[in-house]
Write a structure and sequence with these properties.
single chain; alpha+beta; Aminopeptidase; 2 domains; 11-stranded mixed β-sheet; 11 strands; elongated
Length: 283
């Protein structure tokens, strides 16, 4: 049965289920939006229980028309995943995320007439021997303050016009992220020229060993000037000062300009997330 309001115990059970799947598969079965929706009512949920314990979970984002599901490793190949998938509406068509695009996910998708439509690369590099980038004389870098919120949102919207998730960041979404335990104003680096904000690099400490290039954005009017490279170097330098040995990032495979920038900065791909859609929607 669908619900949009999970109890604290249900949310805890979903996190426990995801943790067990992650330990088994080596990849998290849910993304940040799904985890946030466990408490903010921004998605719809189906939980499959066995003796009052969650062994299957489906997350459906109406806003992004995407689904994510996970089945406990000890209860797979029993039709639970298929049953969850069948709960998704057929109209409008829903994209199904496969994080890590593991062989089992590929087989599941192929057997149900789903084909890859979008990909995200997870890339990583050590936070040592970092590339340097000279800051142009007309560019000023500083850290975020609360008064920068409106300008940051406007720049983000302009930079990610065609991005289905990041481009929809609004005041509520920004406020939620600023309230996260991991948020550090010193890790949100802004770039300005004479006409205002031209870019930002939002970094994130994932755990005691890993930092993340959470978001890099450059205003359309300033693209092609190398500001992305400057912001990338500044953000990685900040993460290195926190004593973190490794940095990761996620980038859309369609954004080859960004992929090449990261490759030139020493990042390598460690896995790929794939969004599958019904084959008739792709043709």
């Amino acid at each position: 049965m669908w619900t949009q309001d999970l109890s604290p115990d249900q949310a805890r059970q979903v996190r426990d289920l995801a943790r067990q799947a992650r330990a088994n598969d080596g990849v998290d079965p849910l993304n940040e939006e799904a985890y946030r929706s466990l408490t903010d009512q921004t998605a719809r949920h189906v939980i499959f229980n066995n003796n009052n314990v969650a062994i299957g979970y489906l997350n459906y984002s109406v806003r992004f028309a995407t689904g994510q599901f996970v089945v406990h490793p000890e209860h797979r190949r029993r039709g639970i995943g298929t049953g969850l998938w069948r709960q998704l509406p057929s109209s409008p068509p829903v994209g199904l995320w496969a994080f890590g695009d593991l062989p089992a996910a590929q087989g599941f998708a192929a057997a149900r007439g789903l084909r890859p439509e979008r990909g995200l690369l997870k890339m990583t590099r050590p936070l040592a021997a970092l590339p340097q980038a000279d800051i142009p004389p007309d560019l000023v870098l500083r850290t975020f303050t609360a008064t920068d919120a409106d300008e940051l949102l406007a720049l983000n919207a302009a930079a990610f016009t065609h991005h289905p998730e990041q481009g929809q960041l609004d005041q509520a979404g920004l406020a939620a992220r600023l309230a996260e335990p991991w948020f550090d104003p010193a890790g949100l680096i802004l770039a300005f020229d004479a006409d205002g904000m031209v870019g930002f690099h939002w970094t994130k400490q994932v755990d005691a060993h890993t930092g993340e290039v959470y978001v890099i954005a450059v205003a359309p009017r300033a693209q092609g000037r190398g500001y992305g490279k400057v912001l990338l170097a500044a953000g990685m330098s900040h993460l290195a000062t926190q004593g973190l040995p490794t940095v990761v990032l996620y980038v859309d495979t369609a954004d080859q300009t960004a992929v090449r920038m990261y490759e030139r900065a020493g990042f390598v791909t460690v896995h790929r997330d794939v969004r599958y859609i019904p084959i008739q929607e792709q043709e």
